[in-house]
Design brief:
Number of helices: 5
Shape: flat
Largest sheet: none
Number of domains: 1
Mean pLDDT: 86
Distance between the termini: 30 Å
Number of strands: 0
């Protein structure tokens, strides 16, 4: 139960502590995506993808794959959107 409580209430440690080799723009974007408060997160997956793409422009090793860019642009975001790599039945 303690792990669940911690998961729900405590912010994760900054990614840069575990991966200091990553560009600060990428760790910042991921840290924002992991925020506990919805208002502090990215409003859409497309905003998040743009932030990561912009941050990775200087280093192609961190750029998202072209397929992922196309899927996000097409709003194929997985179960939440009903489509991703697979089409999910509506409930």
């Amino acid at each position: 139960m303690a792990v669940l409580t911690k998961q729900l209430t405590e912010a994760p440690p900054p990614l840069a502590q575990r991966r200091p080799d990553l560009p600060a723009e990428i760790t910042g974007a991921i840290d924002r995506a992991l925020s506990k408060q919805p208002r502090d997160r990215w409003a859409t997956a497309e905003e998040f993808a743009r932030a990561i793409s912009g941050a990775s422009a200087s280093d192609p090793n961190f750029a998202p794959a072209p397929l992922l860019r196309r899927m996000v642009s097409a709003e194929r975001l997985g179960r939440k959107s009903g489509a991703g790599f697979y089409d999910y039945p509506r409930r």
